[in-house]
């Protein structure tokens, strides 16, 4: 059972989970959510991972509620990048006086860069890592239990913590200090490739880093010269011809994305806006 779907709650009604990036909703999203809650007199739960559960939904309300929410971008997780589903950041700048670097404002770009690294080393789209980012060592976004924790230790600089697991039931450990945000690829890309090449069956990134040990991981990072396999020029799974790929690639570069990222975003948004409950 997945939390982020319409599930029977035991009394004939449904509860429905919504993914919220970093727990922050504004503008039209907030207005629409409030209208839905008031119109159907729903109860609301806020989860420890900054998401929302709407409860006491009658079966007849399911389709209009899901359709209305999807139209403003409040999506069911099957339409959200898997990296975003479990990612979390504290507010940090400009709201927290304890912050020494970015977190909430910086995590969207960090997740896009991680997705690009995944694509470069050959990891599949449905594979994910629990990422947490905080603007100081107080750890309000729980980076010390994440598979990949970035803990602010200076201006535009982070400690990298590794070794937690997907369920956050084990503690991570400090892997590297004073890594500048623009140097994250130098550390993370070889780690992701090492994981892809040497993991055991269904072994998560956090469990892999804990099993291999930090000494071997650091040695691998230091010797990294790039993936062995050459990347393909364009993704035939998404693009039927070279011209379509090049057009999408040009648009993607304007948004600091890869062609694959932009294409998947367009597809997910189209499906979400037209779902109308047909796939449920």
Automatic annotation (TrEMBL):
| Domain annotation Nitrite/sulphite reductase 4Fe-4S: ranges | 86-223
| A GO term from the CC aspect | sulfite reductase complex (NADPH)
Keyword Iron, does the record have it? yes
Q: Which residues form the Nitrite/Sulfite reductase ferredoxin-like domain?
A: 9-60
Task: Return one GO MF term.
Answer: sulfite reductase activity
> Which InterPro entries would you find in this protein's record?
NiRdtase/SiRdtase_haem-b_fer (IPR005117), Nit/Sulf_reduc_fer-like_dom_sf (IPR036136), NO2/SO3_Rdtase_4Fe4S_dom (IPR006067), NO2/SO3_Rdtase_4Fe4S_prot (IPR045169), NO2/SO3_Rdtase_4Fe4S_sf (IPR045854), NO2/SO3_Rdtase_FeS/sirohaem_BS (IPR006066)
- GO-annotated biological processes: sulfate assimilation
Q: Which Pfam families match?
A: NIR_SIR, NIR_SIR_ferr
UniProtKB keywords? 4Fe-4S, Heme, Iron, Iron-sulfur, Metal-binding, Oxidoreductase
- Cofactor names: siroheme; [4Fe-4S] cluster
Against PANTHER family, the record matches this protein to: SULFITE REDUCTASE [NADPH] SUBUNIT BETA, SULFITE REDUCTASE [NADPH] SUBUNIT BETA-RELATED
Q: Which family does it belong to?
A: Belongs to the nitrite and sulfite reductase 4Fe-4S domain family.
* Protein name (Swiss-Prot/TrEMBL): Nitrite/sulphite reductase 4Fe-4S domain-containing protein
Species of provenance: Arachis hypogaea (Peanut)
